Amino acid sequence: MSRASGSIAQNKHAAPAVETACHARVPVRLKSKRLDRASGSLKASHQTEPMDEQQKHSETTRPATPASQPSTSGGPAHSSGYAPGAVKRHRGRNIALIVAALVILGVVLWRWHPWGGPGGGASGAAGASGASGGGRGGRGAMANLAQPVHVATATQGEMPVVLTALGTVTPLANVTVLPQLSGTLQDVFFKEGQMVKKGDVLAQIDPRPYQISLENAQGTLARDQALLQTARLDLKRYQTLLAQDSIASQQVDTQASLVRQYEGTVKSDQANIDTYKLDLIYARITAPVSGRVGLRQVDPGNYVTPSLTNGLVVITQLQPISVIFTTSEDNLQQIIQQTQTGAKLSVTAYDRSNTTSLEGGTLETLDNQIDTTTGTVKLRAIFQNPNNLLFPNQFVNTRLLVDTIKDAVIVPTTAVLNGSMGQFVYVVKPDNTVTVRPVKVGPVDGERTSIKSGVQVGERVVIDGSDRLKEGARITIPADKPRGASGARGAHGASGAAAASGASGTRGHHRKHATQDSQ
To answer: Which of 32, 288, 295, 321 is deepest in the core (most CB within 10 A)?
Structure first.
């Protein structure tokens, strides 16, 4: 410190001399620059010395920090408890433990799950090998397993040839009841929706005007009959006098014409009487057909006329009733062949869903021409309809039985499949393997299908589970499995669960060591 202060003092005394010497010579200027640099370094050393002494004093008074406690002052890395190399080694060890745990976990999953290696990994852990040995191997093991299917045996029997078509229930009679004369509607004797028979009285029109007209016509008839009787007597007298040559023949002829005139008048009067009697009959409105009456269109008290638009009521015949349906012109020949022999073809009507049979009937007739726009022909079937299950204008599905094939080979419809080769079935061999057999299908009746060629009676065909089959695939039929199979499946499941629990224990052990190492 004394040396530094001495040098500073010397610099202070030398400064004026330097300034005076600068004007003299250039070397003196260089010397002054060197002196300025020396004075700056002395000042800097003079300021740093007190700071070094203060820092040393603070270090002596501060308590010692444990080596294991990390530094929080943000100073250099060597001020903390760890050296830079130790920190790097610690982080590398943690990363290595995590990678090892992931590798072990991947190996366990690869050994235990079905997507593991072929054979289930016989060299792996005991639990994983047990699980894979229990029937949960790789793709090759799954491909060689027998597929469970359901089978049915081809039988021999009668197969009906049925034509299905859409039809509409059409009543044989649908009558709108109209009054045949004008008058006031006095009474209505039916209830809406009532079943009536032919001839039942439905309504009554006021008959009094027609009764009066009838009596008037009867009086006119009586008068004209009396005049006719008188004319006939006069004619008889004139004929007697003409025979005696007492009168002229012209008078006799005139009287004969008068008699014929009265006879015509009497006939006209009689016709008028019959007309008024008929009007009295028409005043009582009766049911023209048997059937169900609809809703009433006119109430009592209204004046009705024969030109009434909607009539009094509509009667629809329900028993019997018909169904009109269409079929393709291609089926016309076999239908005509059966009807020409006098056979009555059976027709069954089904509901809209084509599952419930409503009524059975017979084919009545077919239309006399083919519809050129659709290529179909209309047919009418008659149903007795005792339970009124068929309702007018109802939509139904009809099944016309045209013929019956004897001794046909029949299989379930689900056994017949469609592919690039056409229609085929899977036939089960005696060694419980399947083979693909192309077939030619005949008539189909719902869940039954007749086979013209390709399957023999007694052969077994697959009806369910054919989506995973191919040529030569092995199958197993659930009904043929022994009862101990379920126990074996339970044992394999238990071994797989034990292997899974062992693998999870291994993963937990490694995770515990990794945690301890990180701490």
So the answer is: 321
Average pLDDT score, the chain:
76
- CA distance linking residue 320 with residue 363, whole number of Å: 13
Contact 255, 240 (CB under 8 A): no
- Does residue 46 lie in a domain region? no
User: Is 416 found in the same domain as 401?
Assistant: no
Structure token digits, residue 15: 């400064």
Strands 346-350 and 395-412: antiparallel
Determine the distance from the C-alpha atom of residue 209 to the mean position of all C-alpha atoms in its chain, rounded to a whole number.
Answer: 66
Task: Write the DSSP symbol of residue 371.
Answer: B
192 in the same domain as 297: yes
User: Where are the strands (E) in 154-226, listed by range?
Assistant: 155-171, 174-177, 183-188, 195-196, 201-205
332: CATH: 2.40.30.170
Residues 108, 89 contacting (CB under 8 angstroms) = no
**For 475-485, what is the mean pLDDT?**
59
Assigned token pair, 467? 């989506």
Number of Cβ atoms within 10 Å of the Cβ of 235: 20
Both 346 and 251 in one domain: the answer is no
Helical (H) or strand (E) element with 251? helix 249-283
**Do 287 and 325 fall into the same domain?**
no
Q: Residue 396 and residue 389: Cα distance in Å, rounded?
A: 11
SS (H, E, C) 121-142: CCCCCHHHHHHHHCCCCCHHHH
Sign of CA dihedral 248, 254, 260, 262: negative
Q: Are 216 and 346 in contact (CB under 8 A)?
A: no
- Under a CB-based contact definition with an 8 Å cutoff, are residues 427 and 461 in contact? yes
Task: List the CATH number of the domain containing 462.
Answer: 2.40.420.20
Query: pLDDT tier at 96 (50, 70, 90 boundaries)?
Result: confident
For residue 229, give its domain range.
179-304
Domain assignment present for 420: yes
User: In the predicted model, is pLDDT for residue 468 greater than 50?
Assistant: yes
Contacts of 488 (CB under 8 A, 6+ apart): none
